[in-house]
Amino acid sequence: MNHVFRVLVTATTAVAVLAASAAATAAPPDTDRVGLQSGLDEVVAASAIGALADVRDEHGVWRGTSGVAEDGRARAVPVDGRFRVGSITKTFLAAVVLQLVDEGELRLEDTVESWLPGVVPNGHRITVRHLLNHTSGLPDVIPTLPLPPAPAFLDNRWRTWTADELVARALTNPPVFDEPGSAFSYSNTGYLLVGQIIEKATGTSYAKQIENRVIRPLQLDDTWLPGTSTRIRGPHPHGYVPIRQEDGGWQLVDYTRMNPSVFGAAGEMISTTKDLNRFFAALLGGRLLPGHLLDEMKTPGVESRAYGLGLAWRDTPCGVRVYGNDGDALAYQAYSFSTQDRRRQVTVAVTPNFDGDIDDAANAFVNKAICG
């Protein structure tokens, strides 16, 4: 996983949180469902203000919440809440690229230079495939930005960033490695370039392509790419970031509203647990791509990493492999995984309080949902 934002935040942060438990389920409260609720409660207890989940299995659909929607208030997390999905956006973007490959509009072996002349040093050796599987060696843009807990982070809250600006910032740093395809290094910069290549290939924005090719056909009614819009429409939990105060302490700042252009093609999307489960079921079920291109998505760029073309996978403790992705949008974190046969799916979204790293608890919940 790549959680650059989170690592830089949690390394030096300790803040308290009010965590009241609330739940909403759409399935009978049998033993399995009680276990899911307790698991979601444990996610909140570990380091979150609130959490919501959608689990699908042989028992039907379970949708639950825990914690609160706003720090310091008693309002429950909305079970159909919208949230920023972060890098799960990359899987949508990769699916669009592979559809274009299927249509002959571009090739995975096309170079960055052929589509974006003069933009990237060594671009004649970096391919679209390298961008999608994080083996390009291009430096990540995130560490070049002011980040929490620095107060300067808030100065850019409403700023509109362009992909050109963000790519240029990243490329002030040297490559992580010299030979494209030889190693794995997670790079949001690569996906900003993928967004630009889609626009060159189609004549329309990557957001419009995702909407036309994925969101509308799958009827993902609560999923959208906000561009520069700062608000999350519809019901949603509030998200927070920790900011250092003059006295040396820390304060959680409500960061629900912000200009998501800083994420761009690498992570700007907003969705729901229900819509993300529907998307991954459609993707793995062959509704979006032919079999040989879905196989490409599942092919690792390097054998040591369980990451293909915008798609990740993991083996659960019960020996079941799941496919999906996770995303870190700083104030929101999301995890969405499905078995290959789509019989078991889980999506969980969290609003962290940065009292610790939420990954272990969230991954334990994923394992509980898949393994029972």
- Would you tell me which CATH topology applies? Beta-lactamase
Number of helical segments? 11
Described by its quaternary structure, the protein is: single chain
Instruction: Count the beta strands.
Output: 10
Could you characterize the architecture of this molecule?
The chain has helices at residues 4-10, 31-47, 89-102, 112-115, 128-132, 163-170, 188-202, 206-215, 273-284, 291-297, 359-371; strands at 48-57, 60-67, 83-84, 240-244, 250-254, 270-271, 312-315, 321-328, 333-339, 345-352. By secondary structure, it is an alpha+beta fold. The protein has one domain (4-371): DD-peptidase/beta-lactamase superfamily (Beta-lactamase, 3-Layer(aba) Sandwich). A hairpin with a 5-residue loop joins strand 9 and strand 10 (345-352).
Outline:
The chain has 372 residues and is α+β, with helices and mostly antiparallel strands. The chain is built from eleven helices and ten strands.
Write the layout of secondary structure elements.
Elements: H1 4-10, H2 31-47, E1 48-57, E2 60-67, E3 83-84, H3 89-102, H4 112-115, H5 128-132, H6 163-170, H7 188-202, H8 206-215, E4 240-244, E5 250-254, E6 270-271, H9 273-284, H10 291-297, E7 312-315, E8 321-328, E9 333-339, E10 345-352, H11 359-371
Antiparallel strand pairs: 1-2, 1-10, 3-6, 4-5, 7-8, 8-9, 9-10
Helix pairs in contact: 2-11, 3-7, 3-8, 6-7
Labels describing this entry:
Beta-lactam-related; disordered N terminus; single chain; 10 strands; alpha+beta; 372 residues; Beta-lactamase; signal; Beta-lactam/transpept-like; 11 helices; two-stranded antiparallel sheet; Beta-lactamase family protein
